[in-house]
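User: I'm preparing a small set of examples for a lab meeting where we compare how different chains pack in three dimensions. I only have the primary sequence for this one, and I'd like the structure in token form so I can line it up with the others. Please keep the answer compact; I'll paste it straight into my notes.
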Amino acid sequence: MSLRRVGWLAAMSVATLLWMSCGEVYRPVVIPIANNPPNPANFHAVFGISTNVAPNPGSVLQIDVSGDSNIGVAHMGINPTHAAMEILGNSSRIFVASAGSVTNGDPDVITAFSPAFSSGIGSPVTFSLPNVGPNQSSAITAISESGNLVTVTLAAAIGEASVGGPIVISGVSIGGYDGNFVISSIAGTTIQYTDPISGLANSSGGTATVPLPTFCSYQPDFVTTTQSNAVYVANYGQENGAHCNLASTDSVAALNTGNNTVANIKYLPPGSHPVLMAETPNALNLYVANQGDGIGPATVLNLSPVDLSTIATIPIGVNPSWIAARPDGQFVYVVTQGDGQLYTISTVANTVASAPQPVGVGANYILYDKSKNRLYVTSPAATANANGLVYVFSATTDSPTPLATPSGNPPGALIIPAAPPCAAAPATCGPVIPVSVAALPDGSRFYVASYQRQLPCSDPNIGTGPCIIPMVTVFDAGSLTIRAASSSMFGSELSLFSTPPFVTGLYAFPEVTSCAPAPIYSPNSVRFRMFATAAADSSHVYVSICDAGVIADISTTTNTLSQGTNADDRLVIDLVTPFSAAPPGPGNHPVPQSPVFLLAGQ
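Assistant: Understood. Below is the structure token output for the 602-residue chain.
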């Protein structure tokens, strides 16, 4: 092992042990990217999107898959919610939607950046949704800080600015300045305010905006594309905003990535609340799942990617929770949480192609495995068993068919075993809750991320309060049987806390209330308590653990050059994020940002 790697592991160990005693601000989620074909430039990269304490911007952290290390960091918008990748020939860009307006007055933005290579992550580009009126915004020509006093020089005076009023800074080329502040003085094109973060370098670029009296809250919550010159953003929206001249901002925006502008925006009926999208590979259809009120039936819109005109409206069940498209573009699959159904939508007929498949009320995620032409659906609250279930369907026909599974299970269903600490003391534990699946592109295995809640906690490192026990179950994709983990204190399940950075023997973590997804999603809540995705070369699987605030890095292959146990499906390390702007925790220790998405480079 190189001195550089030893030093990096030591630094991670110290930082993470300090952070374990700090505040509950971690909300990691992993999101796979389904673009075709694989992109050699990002073959060995995973991108972690993290939130900061409002009104401070979140960040992106680029992970080198082969080196298990951080190779670049850049600032994003406030409250990132989702991200997607645009393939540009032999390169790519990442687009991150940030619903900053869930904190009153902060901006909603979409941020685009190029991955790091030899020169680091490229300078982010910011797309702003149409939420300001005349005399409310101006370009920043210079920005500097003395102590905590920030001086901003504008290209033009902002007529609506007033001392004591708010100002929003976004898109400054050097990170740290973006946020929402109170104006302390105005002199023509010069505005000053106090920033709690000190020591910022001189910079320029970006925009200064006065959010009142016109400020429309869009709350972007999903991004998708299969093209090289357009990206689409779903905006959850707000009805009759106090300072907005629109009855509703529920909408879908089209970004022109060639000139970095918002090319078009389609406003939807009030209360639509679009939450999911999938574009077909031929770029002829953009399917948008509208949540509605989350209690009654929902709809899926088929929009034209060219002008966002409506092609069809397709009724579905209650509270759609995830969406996936078949790579040939013929079918789109939607899972609904409220009534527990898997819907198959024909892109030719623009109708539900067959009777919905039952997957249990509470079903929250669907993954299309193109190597096996399969669908995996996680159902955390399945009624057929005390534990949640994972449903496996063949997608080779127009109607998904449940694959044969062990006797006693519902058709197509797999039961995830309890973690040994819970199996030994079942009275203290809740059911196993599977929440996401990652399938290796080589078709050999799939990985189910799940957890159990325990009270009192049996882990002596945690205490007796409520805790969660996160784990991964590895399945052989051919036989649908569980593979024993190569190195795990759990036996057949893979435990997700490494040493370092955690103490030896740790298998649980204190429960963080904010990590539990809301019964009905909104952009100020998490989608997943845990999430898994696989590297494009099948060499690693990454699992986020919201309550612990880490991303578990699992090696799926043997490595004859590594020291120690040379086996597949072993936990390598838990990765942490950059420090946040939150006040220091106990012992004056800094608190890291909260990972909310992971994107596997394709």
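A couple of notes for your slides: The two ends are 28 Å apart (CA to CA). The chain has a mean pLDDT of 84.

User: Perfect, thanks.
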